[in-house]
Design a protein that fits this description.
Elements lengths: L2 H17 L8 E3 L8 E4 L1 H7 L3 H15 L3 E7 L2 E6 L1 H12 L13 E5 L11 H19 L3 E8 L4 H13 L10 H4 L3 H25 L4 H7 L1 H15 L2 H25 L5 E4 H4 L4 H9 L3 E3 L5 E4 L7 E5 L7 H16 L3 E7 L3 H13 L8 E6 L2 E2 L15 H19 L7 H21 L7 E2 L2 H4 L7 H20 L15 H23 L2 H21 L8 H24 L9
Parallel strand pairs: 5-6, 5-11, 6-7, 11-12, 13-14
Antiparallel strand pairs: 1-2, 2-4, 3-4, 8-9, 9-10
The chain binds one RNA strand through strand 1, helix 2, helix 15, helix 16 and strand 14.
Length: 597
Amino acid sequence: MDIQEQVKQAIQQAISALFDTTLDEVALQPTKKEFEGLYTFVTFPLTKTLRKSPIEIGQAIGTYLQENTTVVSHFNVVQGFLNLSIADSAWLDVLNDILAEPDFGQLPTKGQSVMVEFSSPNTNKPLHLGHLRNNFLGDAVSRILKANGYDVVKTSIVNDRGIHICKSMRAYQLFSNDASGQPETPESSGMKGDHLIGKYYVLFDKAYKAQIEELVAQGMPKEEAEKKAPLMLEVQEMLRKWEQGDPETVTLWRQLNEWVYAGFAETYQKIGVSFDKTYYESNTYVLGKEVVEEGLQKGIFYRKEDSSVWINLTEEGLDQKLVLRSDGTSVYMTQDLGTTDLKYDDFHNDRQIWVVGNEQDYHFAVLFAILRRLGRPYANGLYHLSYGMVDLPSGKMKSREGTVVDADDLIQEMYDTAEQRTRDLGKIEDFNSAEAQQLYHMLGMGALKYFLLKVDPKKRMLFNPEESVDFQGNTGPFIQYTHARIRSVLRKAEQNGLQPEKSVSAVAMHPTEQQLVYLLSQFPQRIAEAGDDYAPSYIGQFAYELAKAYNQFYAEVSILSEPDPIKTQLRVTLSALVAGTIRKAMQLLGIDVPEKM
RNA sequence: GCAUUCGUAGCUCAAUUGGAUAGAGCACCUGACUACGGAUCAGGAGGUUUGGGGUUCGAAUCCCUACGAGUGCACCA
């Protein structure tokens, strides 16, 4: 079925028939645009064993393929490169195979399950640009893994407790009363809950810094001032009260968090992200101490004189790491050990993936090493999907310096831009206002998601606001536009009584048509690679290449005014298939595509 | 200081994992049948892949080195 496989096997055959030897693996690469052909076989590696020139080998294999196969129609040899052209009949076979597959793009089930943990926000501030990259990545990877045949469980662990939450709470207690003595609420202020709480987090920081400065002015060293500032002491006291279950503190904590969750829910809804299970750190932070006990018993951990517990990971190239404080309380690692067990107990996933920024690379290296030492059955299925930070042209984002790009603001900005562009072009006069709003949202989110997902996750990236609202070239809206354009052609075709068919008949093909079939045939493989590498960027690139190739095809051949009905039929069918595949690919990125725009 | 990731056109990113003359988009020039949607297409210009060594038929990719940048090195999360 797969042309590439056919060609590879044919080459194996040729080599054994011609030279009486075999090659472990035949590697094919796409032929460069400047040369004729589709696949290229590099003959250099054979020169040593065969003691023949690369050109000679190329000629011999090429001739053999042309004479003995139906796939290869002709060939040319340039230096050590054998360029192979594929016969139209083979292309049509491929096309018909794809058309016969109802779930094209859905790979067979793997019989395995994966948990993807992402988003995991703090409840002391609203989401920003960095969170968006995380959310889009986690969501897209989940979709891609599903397409790869895995059962996927999406989870988030909400960081809803701890000293930073107490900071917002304390500031709220101190500063939230308005002139009439009423505390501010989302309703009274008209602010989204997460933004409201974020405001108090910033207020805390300001007031705290002012106290430090005052103490320093009185002659206290800065380090001491940071620890002894009254606000800091109050917040620590508040955390103690929270842990003891003090009713007043817990009530306030509940109230503020609820407001934040309402705000988050709104944002998640807008970006189309959801979870199968949400964990709360207020429940899980106590976990992990039994794991420490277990590790001690197994002799994997050791206790120091001050009774703190450690593990020595120098054999793995890591350091010694603390897993329990000397006062017996947990650290971050303790919790994660316990939580990982919990997640496994809940779902028994074959694999667990964490979408977390690359500043935690070391933490996860240690976590995985410990779990391997403990002999956890799932230890080899753990993966940290580490992604780079998002920089701004002005430099790094810093919450406290107010240089963060707020997620809600950004989404609104993209929406506004989409609306402006659409109005300028004036193509949707027949839309009612609800339809128009839906379109603006679809385009705005498409631009934003594509912009953040087209870059390799591992790399840090630059977010240039001007480029992000660009709707031309390698952008989400360009791909969405191509889809809308095809749908328009298909509507018109239908008016002419033409429908896409389930199969196409033999006919001479245009190079742009061959190119389209070739790209389409690559889709399953690209999904597999994107799954293996956890790289939504592969899918983005695929969608872009497919859209570009279609526009090229569109510019070079005529679909509806083509005189030959068989060619028209092929082109209508191919168009429908491309539109469907673009939609599927974009869906893997969590991006919707419109019928009109 | 130690560990780790990275450095590709003016800018943002690719490069099938060691293959041909390193490709796209943006920006900048030049064109496109009265057209099935111009949010498009075709073409031009733009590169010593940070510098210097090495490995081999062949290097942006692997090794060494210098320079530059990010991140991590808490009994924080």
